[in-house]
Amino acid sequence: MNMNLSHPELVDLLQRAYSAEKAAAFAYQGHAGSVKGEEEKKAIRQIETDEWNHRREVLAIMNLYGIPIRKYYEFRFHVIGTIISGSCYVIGWFMPYYFAGRLESGNVCEYFRMMHYFHALGITAHDKILYEMGMKEKEHEVYFLGKIKKSKLLPFFEKIFNWGNKGSFNDVDLEKKYSLEESEKYCRKSS
Ligand SMILES: [Fe+2]
Ligand SMILES: [Fe+2]
Hints:
Blueprint: H1 8-34, H2 38-64, H3 71-87, H4 94-120, H5 127-148, H6 154-161
Helix pairs in contact: 1-2, 1-3, 1-4, 2-5, 4-5
The site of one fe (ii) ion has 7 residues, from α2, α4 and α5.
């Protein structure tokens, strides 16, 4: 099947997400390698696996519509992922958790925005997988925030980088989740 998607923003978002998932997976390899606790290593390796799964799911959607992988994004995010991965060993324990959480916070809405774009084209076939991926990114955000919640550095970083205990880049609340049917209400605020 090869139907074209006449939605440039959606095509770009899919291509970028596909490549950015690789950057995230690379980054978590370094992060898992740099943390000391066995439990943390295991948790971060699981998150890495989640990102590889996301990459596969995004590619499956792209293939359905004949959307090519963008070489430029693949290269760019390969470099970014490698740099972040290496930096985890030198920047201390706080920053890898902080910036991972901040990144995940932004990724949540990418999947709900894809859902909005698909709906604009009358396509609901991917709702479930997009919902699951968005929720998974939220779980990642919550995990990372949990690791640094009590750090004395957090208020300082939160002031500069706008993410932390008070601020998030999405309006998903895991305690009071919308159902799949309601979930298209997420991420409607422009940010
Ligand atoms: Fe992901
Ligand atoms: Fe994630």
